[in-house]
Design a protein that fits this description.
Layout: H1 9-15, H2 22-32, H3 40-43, H4 47-67, H5 70-93, H6 99-113, H7 115-118, H8 127-152, H9 169-181, H10 190-210, H11 213-233, H12 238-262, H13 272-285
Length: 286
């Protein structure tokens, strides 16, 4: 086995031992990304390919909290921390910033946003006072960054500029549509949105006929965007609506599993028609 430059067998064995030291995690990530001796999968990743995993891990943290499972929360927070380390390592490889820079940025931000703690400032005693100061300082920071961007690029500021790009796609789509609606760029009737949904579905069918995978991805995105628009028009939160459907799917699929098990059968041994019939039974029982 070959090791990265400066790494001995002793050092390698140390990597095999769990550690409470963040430097160990940074070293492990560096090792995984080392050409020639690292992990092929880790080495071929970039910011774009890792971003979906970062979002997924954040949701798993939220899920562990919702379930009140602190054991899982510990593990999921570790997975989320790994995502930060992964992104920081890739940035360091491009001489953009390092993990230390990330830590410095957030510590500077936390000190600045808590003047009542770190600046010996009196008068911010209640949670509402603290929250108000946090929002004010955050707005100041945002204005500073916006001014820097405007100075760097003298370009037109879009109505949609204030929509956060880093939020979940469903929430971002909802906010983009809300912003556009303030200037009249919107449908007046949910039925018009339904017409758009049917139009997008037809375009997906046409893309299927052409077998164009890139077009299919784009058209599927258009359909999802139109569905979010429908949810907005009827006053439904698309995230909560989808979560409800996910729970319903799990519940009905669980019924199929239990019924087949009671018959001494497996999912693999059942036909689609049989599973569909059980699905309808579950639906009728709700």
């Amino acid at each position: 086995m070959s090791f990265p430059s400066g790494l001995s067998v002793f050092h390698f064995r140390c990597f095999m031992t769990p550690s409470r030291d963040i430097s160990r995690l940074l070293e492990i990530m560096a090792m995984l990304r080392t050409p020639g001796s690292g992990c092929p999968w880790d080495m071929e990743q970039n910011f774009a390919t890792i971003a979906p995993y970062t979002i997924e891990e954040a949701y798993e943290v939220a899920d562990a909290i919702a379930r009140g499972d602190l054991h899982d929360l510990r593990d999921e927070l570790g997975d989320l921390l790994l995502q930060v380390v992964f992104h920081a390592r890739m940035a360091e490889e491009q001489n953009a910033f390092s993990f230390g820079d990330v830590v410095e940025a957030i510590t500077r931000k936390m000190i600045r946003r808590h003047p009542h703690v770190f600046a010996d400032q009196d008068g911010l005693l209640t949670p509402s006072d603290v929250k108000g100061a946090w929002e004010r300082i955050k707005a100041e920071e945002k204005a500073e960054r916006a001014a820097e961007r405007l100075a760097a690029e003298a370009s037109h500021k879009s109505l949609l500029s204030s929509v956060k790009a880093g939020q979940p796609a469903l929430a971002q789509a909802m906010e983009l549509q809300r912003k556009a609606s303030t200037v009249g760029f919107d449908w007046n009737d949910p039925r018009a949105v339904l017409h758009k949904i049917r139009e997008e579905a037809d375009e997906i069918e046409q893309a299927l006929d052409r077998g164009d995978s890139q077009e299919l991805r784009e058209e599927t995105g258009d359909l999802l965007f139109a569905l979010v628009n429908l949810a907005r028009h009827i006053g439904a939160d698309p995230e909560m609506a989808l979560r409800g459907t996910n729970a319903k799917f799990e519940r009905r699929f669980g019924y199929i599993e239990r019924e087949l098990q009671s018959q001494g059968r497996s999912l693999e041994g059942a036909s689609l028609a049989e599973m569909d019939a059980l699905w309808n039974e579950a639906k009728e029982k709700e």
